[in-house]
Amino acid sequence: MGNCLSSQSADDLSLLNESDGASLPGEPPPPYREHEQVPVYHPTPSQSRLATQLTEEEQIRIAQRIGLIQHLPKGIYDPGSEPSEKKVKECVICMLDFVYGDPIRFLPCMHIYHMECIDDWLMRSFTCPSCMEPVDAALLSSYEAN
């Protein structure tokens, strides 16, 4: 009678050795390492690339866009005490209803969105998803007026 578990096949060892950070049999496992995720950016609406693959010019443009986004006003969604039919009730990007306390961002055209939704949208296209007004032109003209 043989023991079917007495020896490991070459396939079993190769699986162990090919895994990321694997240790040899009998050795303690390597310390846990969290993999750093490289952010994905959109230099143009139709392209998406890792941050490490962007040209210097694209990196500058994206940094400028991030700076402009950070200057847009933000707040917390508060529907108020009186129900009004004109009050915006949902984010048109994710199509979820606003809930009291949701972080929101206001665009110069006065449309509001979940902050996470609109920030991601603006990194791809710097226009309002509702009225298609360019956000950067309205933002820059508001600075010139002051």
Automatic annotation (TrEMBL):
Bias (Low complexity): 1-16
Residues annotated as signal peptide: none
Listed Pfam families: zf-RING_2
PROSITE patterns (alphabetical): ZF_RING_2
SUPFAM superfamilies for this protein: RING/U-box
Disordered: annotated segments: 1-46
Keyword match Zinc-finger: yes
Any one annotated GO CC term: recycling endosome
One GO biological process term: ubiquitin-dependent protein catabolic process
Keywords assigned by UniProt, alphabetized: Cytoplasm, Endosome, Lipoprotein, Metal-binding, Myristate, Nucleus, Palmitate, Phosphoprotein, Ubl conjugation, Ubl conjugation pathway, Zinc, Zinc-finger
Location within or outside the cell: Cytoplasm; Early endosome; Nucleus; Recycling endosome
Gene Ontology terms, MF aspect: ubiquitin protein ligase activity; zinc ion binding
Residue intervals of the RING-type domain: 91-131
Function: Essential component of a ubiquitin-editing protein complex, comprising also TNFAIP3, ITCH and TAX1BP1, that ensures the transient nature of inflammatory signaling pathways. Promotes the association of TNFAIP3 to RIPK1 after TNF stimulation. TNFAIP3 deubiquitinates 'Lys-63' polyubiquitin chains on RIPK1 and catalyzes the formation of 'Lys-48'-polyubiquitin chains. This leads to RIPK1 proteasomal degradation and consequently termination of the TNF- or LPS-mediated activation of NF-kappa-B.
Oligomer status and interactors: Interacts (when phosphorylated) with 14-3-3. Interacts with the E3 ubiquitin-ligases NEDD4, ITCH, SMURF2 and WWP1. Also interacts with the E2 ubiquitin-conjugating enzymes UBE2D1 and UBE2N, but neither with CDC34, nor with UBE2L3. Interacts with ZNF350, EPS15 and STAMBP. After TNF stimulation, interacts with TAX1BP1, TNFAIP3 and RIPK1; these interactions are transient and they are lost after 1 hour of stimulation with TNF. Interacts with GGA1.
Protein name per its UniProtKB record: RING finger protein 11
Phylogenetic lineage: Eukaryota, Metazoa, Chordata, Craniata, Vertebrata
